[in-house]
Design goal:
Length: 237
């Protein structure tokens, strides 16, 4: 198939270019997470104007097939992972289901004074202390989720544990089974700190997932605040 677009076609040039680039992505000409040719190179390859190229790239970016990285170029998007929040699924399991490797960096683990939210959702007293765990979650060595978990001080042994793996696997070793959860999802913009940790631009969209997880006896187990890269994940509610 010729690289040139059909100038006598009723189909707009940029639409033809969208179809050509999409087909090349699907056929592996441009591999996932690879950089596609520059705007000038695409102009020369398809013999179209820069305006046509830009309109095509914008449409493919809106579809989620391409992503622009400031100062680096335009890349084929890595397919987003789906998190089904209805069942209790660990991040490690979610990654494994799509063939990706999960890992975690512990940013902090400490005892802190219970917040008003802890008092209401963990059912602890206002004088209590809780276990606070901050972690950065990676899929195939790429940072994708920033999370903060609060546990009642019944689980203070977590402070002496290796927190780089699955917390749920660790809890199960103590006979604790995460059973159900309540969820609240919203869309926020990444501030400077979150953007730096997640390797994205300030203002990039983040999914904010607030969960209260309960154990097998219906008791509050922990509160989770997760800041999830919107370009890497979709949430199934």
């Amino acid at each position: 198939m010729s690289a040139k677009v059909e100038r006598n076609s009723a189909n707009p040039l940029y639409k033809q270019l969208v179809a050509r680039i999409r087909a090349e992505i699907e056929n592996g000409v441009y591999e996932i997470d690879s950089r596609i040719p520059s705007e000038q190179e695409l102009c020369e390859k398809y013999e179209v104007s820069r305006i046509t190229v830009r309109k095509a790239l914008e449409e493919l970016s809106e579809e989620g097939l391409l992503v622009r990285r400031q100062g680096k170029g335009t890349f084929v998007s890595v397919p987003s992972m789906e998190i089904d929040v209805k069942p209790i699924t660990s991040f490690h399991d979610a990654c494994r289901l799509v063939g990706r490797v999960a890992s975690s960096k512990v940013l902090g683990a400490r005892s802190v004074k219970a917040t008003k939210e802890d008092v209401i959702e963990l059912k602890v007293s206002s004088e209590s202390r809780v276990v606070e765990i901050d972690r950065l979650r990676y899929a195939d060595d790429e940072p994708v989720i920033l999370e903060r978990n609060h546990f009642s001080f019944v689980y203070s042994y977590l402070l002496e544990s290796d927190l780089r793996g699955s917390l749920y696997s660790l809890l199960r070793s103590y006979g604790i089974e995460p059973s159900k959860a309540s969820h609240d999802v919203s869309l926020i913009s990444a501030d400077e700190n979150k953007a730096s940790l997640l390797g994205i631009e300030v203002g990039s969209p983040l999914l904010f997932l607030h969960e209260v997880i309960y154990d097998q006896k219906g008791r509050p187990l922990h509160i989770s605040h997760q800041y999830i890269r919107g370009d890497k994940f979709t949430l199934k509610l």
